[in-house]
Structure to design on (386 residues):
């Protein structure tokens, strides 16, 4: 693979493996798909590309993608998977976890087996890092858009079924369900990150889940017990517990601007920006599906079930970064929340950063924070209008 030298007016990087910061200007040298050198100032030679505005950032990592571009990944066919993988780099995403929401455990197992068989034939594009199972071990009180008929306790047999393919990297569950703490320990023993979500748990119950190994909270404030001064719930523990990483859908519909600022202030360095994108993402208003059930994307706002329940989002991850910056979050911290923090959380320290030795997954974000060019392993996988 040929070398690549990029010069950028602004570069969000971790030179020398240190803290992420903005270099203005900066450069990146890539050899064989891996970042070989990161520097501040002018590049050591004529660059292959000079990025005169915007920001060169690490490729974004999305841990919650139900689908997009008209496809729900839990039941998408091969062509659907190919389109999602090819087109996610349009949004700055270079790696992601397809997310399968609540279904009967055996139906989830079949979706996992189908995904396993499809992975070797996927085209160049965003990396598939595994699968996120959001359910069915959720609270009926906080089910959101999940089908109540399919909710269940995490029995040892059900957990074993979910683990069969080895594809599962993240599981969302409610720790107050019978058998949940034992399930958390089993998942963690198998290298699966556990996230508390769709839960009516008390803060104490969430702390016990963290004691058992849980390390994330799914879409903070949404479909969970909240922040009450005498009866703190999931959201309060997510903000207060340094072991937990609150996931945040920053479309300014799921969570208000004020609440989002609270999350970044209280959980600095722990926030994980996610899209929770549904099949409607990247599509015009109309009818789509999530988890095999109908949803409607209105002209404004997120997709909805027929009863008005929010059902995923139509958010782009590069837009979430832009929204964070617009709220006053430091640009390096905003990018970290969509790149380094999620990558580290699922054990992929080679992703989500511009640092020597990391994979050359990069995105040039314009001044509007939308992706202009995206590289995976040093190769261009998306080239927009500059």
């Amino acid at each position: 693979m040929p070398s690549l030298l990029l010069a950028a007016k602004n570069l969000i990087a971790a030179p020398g493996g240190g803290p992420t910061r903005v270099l203005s200007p900066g450069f990146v040298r890539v050899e064989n798909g891996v970042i070989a050198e990161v520097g501040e100032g002018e590049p050591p030679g004529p660059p292959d590309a000079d990025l005169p505005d915007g920001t060169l950032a690490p490729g974004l990592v999305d841990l919650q993608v139900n689908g997009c571009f008209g496809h729900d990944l839990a039941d998408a066919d091969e062509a659907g998977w190919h389109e999602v993988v090819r087109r996610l780099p349009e949004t700055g995403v270079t790696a992601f976890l397809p997310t399968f929401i609540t279904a009967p455990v055996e139906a989830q197992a079949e979706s996992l087996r189908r995904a396993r068989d499809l992975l070797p034939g996927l085209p160049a594009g965003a990396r598939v890092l595994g699968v996120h199972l959001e359910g069915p071990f959720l609270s009926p009180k906080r089910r959101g858009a999940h089908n109540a008929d399919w909710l269940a306790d995490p029995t040892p047999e059900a957990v074993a079924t979910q683990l069969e393919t080895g594809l599962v990297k993240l599981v969302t569950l409610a720790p107050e369900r019978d058998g949940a703490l034992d399930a958390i320990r089993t998942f963690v023993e198998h290298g699966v990150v556990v996230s508390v979500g769709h839960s009516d748990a008390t803060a104490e119950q969430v702390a016990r889940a963290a004691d058992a190994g849980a390390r994330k909270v799914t879409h903070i404030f949404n479909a969970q017990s909240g922040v009450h001064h005498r009866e703190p719930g999931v959201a309060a523990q997510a903000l207060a517990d340094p072991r937990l990483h609150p996931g945040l859908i920053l479309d300014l519909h799921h969570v208000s601007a004020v609440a989002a600022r609270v999350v970044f202030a209280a959980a600095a360095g722990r926030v994980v920006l996610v899209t929770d994108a549904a099949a409607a993402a990247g599509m015009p208003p109309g009818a789509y599906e999530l988890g095999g059930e109908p949803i409607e994307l209105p002209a404004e706002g997120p997709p909805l079930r027929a009863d008005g329940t929010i059902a995923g989002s139509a958010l782009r991850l590069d837009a979430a970064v832009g929204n964070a910056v617009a709220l006053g979050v430091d640009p390096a911290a905003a990018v970290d929340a969509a790149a380094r923090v999620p990558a580290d959380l699922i054990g992929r320290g080679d992703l989500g950063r511009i640092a020597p030795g990391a994979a050359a997954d990069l995105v040039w974000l314009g001044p509007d924070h939308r992706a202009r060019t995206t590289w995976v392993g040093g190769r261009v996988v998306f080239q927009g209008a500059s």
Q: What stands out?
A: The radius of gyration is 20 Å. The domain at 4-57+353-383 is CATH 2.30.40.10 (Urease, subunit C; domain 1). The chain has a mean pLDDT of 97.
